[in-house]
Specification:
Layout (H helix, E strand, L loop, with lengths): L2 H25 L6 H18 L5 H14 L1 H20 L1 H10 L5 H19 L4 H12 L4 H11 L7 H8 L9 H18 L3 H7 L4 H6 L1 H18 L7 H18 L18 H22 L4 H6 L4 E6 L5 E5 L3 E5 L8 E4 L9 H12 L3 H14 L1 H17 L7 H13 L3 H16 L2 H19 L3 H14 L5 H11 L5 H32 L1
Antiparallel strand pairs: 1-2, 2-3, 3-4
Helix pairs in contact: 1-2, 1-20, 1-25, 2-19, 3-19, 4-7, 4-17, 4-18, 4-24, 5-7, 5-15, 6-7, 6-9, 6-13, 6-14, 7-8, 7-24, 8-11, 8-24, 8-25, 10-13, 10-23, 10-25, 13-14, 15-17, 19-24, 20-22, 21-22, 21-23, 21-25, 22-23, 23-25
Amino acid sequence: MSHYDTGANMSFFLSVFPIVLLIYLMVKRNALPSYVALPWVAVLVMVVHLLHFHTDIVTISANITSAIVAVQTPITVIFGAILFNRFSEVSGATDIMRKWLGNINPNPVAQLMIIGWAFAFMIEGASGFGTPAAIAAPILMGLGFNPLKVAMLALIMNSVPVSFGAVGTPTWFGFGPLKLSEDMVLEVGSITALIHSVAALLIPLLALRVLVSWKDIRQNLVFIYISVFACVVPYLLIAQFNYEFPSLVGGAIGLFVSVWAANRNIGLAKVENTLDSNAVTTGQVVKALFPTGLLIAFLVVTRIHQLPFKAMMNDTTVWFTTALGSLGTFEISKGLIFSLKNIFGSDVSSSYKLLYVPALIPFVITVLIAIPVFGVSGAKVKDIFATSLKQSKNPFIALMGALVMVNLMLVGGEHSMVKIIGRTFAEVTGDDWTIFSSYLGAVGAFFSGSNTVSNLTFGSVQLSTAETTGLSVALILALQSVGGAMGNMVCINNIVAVSSVLNIQNQEGTIIKTTIVPMVVYGIIAALCATLLIPLLYTL
């Protein structure tokens, strides 16, 4: 073995070791909470950079600073979601929603499918960033379901719509750096939707199994599939000609159909009617739905690029700029994007889109508008903000660690730790890459917390692997996107987010142990689609 091979093997081992260690620390018997494990692993990655890759201190410092700016995006989204849920609880809106949704049908399977599947599907289509679990999970918890199991169900369910979440961001933005043609992006989206649609035949059943027995699932199977198909059929059809609205429209149609079917008890086993048909009046329901409706309206209006708002919020024209000494240049754009550029004289930059990140708009603004509507007192408002801030502290530390780790693993371009991992996998698997491709996407989502970031990170690895091995580029990129979505089930950011919203302490490891099973199954379905179903469809 040559000196080069030994060096390459060592680089691969040192690149993969922090991820393996992180998973071990979080799932071992006395598991470390993510806000302890992640910062330590980030320090380890830094040490590997200094001692093995001989990365200069300026690059490392710049990337750590960049992570401090970048962490504002997920943490403000989490804060916004917690704030919205706290407000809904305190104002009584959640209670009315709970009574209303609980009174559509007393059958727990109906409640889990309407809220955990169809409603979350629609919210994912509008905002992404882990918001569906953060909004749907508290409603289910309020209906009396176990919080820990609700967190698991929400994470497993929130996989199928993710590749087209936040109006298609993972697809059109995630693969942006690859400079694909419009037709190619559409083809990737179309194959992605097809694989997800096949997975949707099984994944919701595995999610339900966390909370109900197989017997309950069998007895309500007809309703379950009405709800699944009502979301997935429009989703698959829309993905053939558009990559922004499959999840949003599919979820909205699915929610409407699921509520309609549940109201008529179609395909549902009869359960003892514990409902109080007079529990809530229509007026109360309309008022309780007002914050959620406003939330979705804000999201849709600010995400459709035919309207002027999206461009305005993303306007990068510099409005104000100042030098912060050696730290770099601080800029504010007309779209209120706060940027720190050329950090420590390097080419590293980071920014925070105040208006576009789904935090201030829609969450904070919605809460501020809804406070007078619900007549919430000043003291309660203060308490809502204070408890939401307090609940965001541990997730902030965890995400800080995660982003420092991710940023450092991306340092070095072609020789970065991430690229070394990707290339080694491709070399080992060769033409069988279609079997493993989705799992690389899942690894990306696991430690970055987002399908979009996974696609940005591994898109180029997947593209070069497809080109090297002669596999279909569209198929491999679709598998990457599906992987990034299924990785949402085990991704640390989402687990931290849903746990902090439900106030579950130190159970990240337990959650991963449960959600990793459906994730692996998802990858097997993706591999079968890629090797059997898609070649068959393309030969027809």
